[in-house]
Design goal:
Length: 243
């Protein structure tokens, strides 16, 4: 991995993917701040992830709360090198006509608004880092949306579009800077999965094969691996993790 220890923020840290990602970064010797909305859950998740993982509580759907979060993190570290955004959610229906407005409102907040807030607040950190990385997790449903999953696929598509715009911002500020071009050193990427799989799901359904699913440990390895690859190669890419 490039350089010395990194400081990484993992949002959506209470779920199994957040625990896996936080643990993998911590085991690699990096400082991790894992973020959740529920204090008890994020503290338990951080304890499971490892001693070098710091839990913080934040409502990522509120911009001011994310600014306060960043201020708290900056109080104990010079810079954030990476943000792995794992906040999302799932809503489905039978078809186009019965897509509830409540589902759209929920996914707009969890999948889009949180991403917008986090990327805006931590943009300066990531673009300033010698190895800045920003990543989100999207779905294969974006490329092949179904009527029943219209709301979910549309929300994920919007989140992807925002992330690719962040990638363009990194390019414009670095290798594409007309006045003072520099080597690309920050990258924003989209991880694409069919669905995520963890050990609890395997225990609950030992008879299932889970075809095409991505294990949370594989997602974690891919997240850490972002820092080993050139930013110019990664920036703006959709990285398929579905098997």
């Amino acid at each position: 991995m490039t350089g010395g220890p990194l400081t990484v923020v993992v949002t959506g840290g209470s779920n199994s993917s957040g625990i896996a990602v936080a643990r993998t970064f911590a085991l690699a010797g990096h400082r991790v701040f894992t973020i959740g909305s529920n204090e008890a859950r994020i503290e338990a998740a951080a304890a499971e992830a490892g001693d070098d993982v710091t839990p913080l509580v934040c409502d990522l759907s509120r911009l001011e709360s994310v600014r306060e979060l960043a201020s708290e993190i900056h109080g104990s570290t010079e810079r954030v090198d990476g943000v792995i955004h794992l906040v999302g959610g799932w809503r489905g229906a039978k078809g186009i006509e019965d897509q509830p407005d409540e589902d759209w409102a929920a996914l707009e907040q969890s999948a889009i608004t949180t991403l917008r807030n986090v990327s805006r607040v931590f943009y300066k950190d990531v673009v300033s880092s010698p190895t800045g990385r920003f990543a989100m997790v999207s779905s294969t449903a974006v490329a092949a949306p179904t009527a029943g999953a219209a709301t979910y696929a549309a929300a994920k598509a919007a989140a992807e579009t925002w992330t690719l715009a962040v990638a363009d911002g990194f390019r414009r500020d670095q290798s594409g800077n007309k006045d003072e071009p520099t080597e690309q050193h920050s990258a924003a990427v989209v991880f694409v999965v069919k669905s995520l799989l963890d050990a609890a799901m395997r225990r609950e359904h030992p008879e299932r094969k889970f075809p095409g699913y991505t294990d949370v440990e594989d997602l974690a390895a891919a997240a850490v691996g972002l820092f080993d690859k050139p930013a110019a190669e990664l920036n703006g890419q959709r990285l398929l993790l579905a098997k």
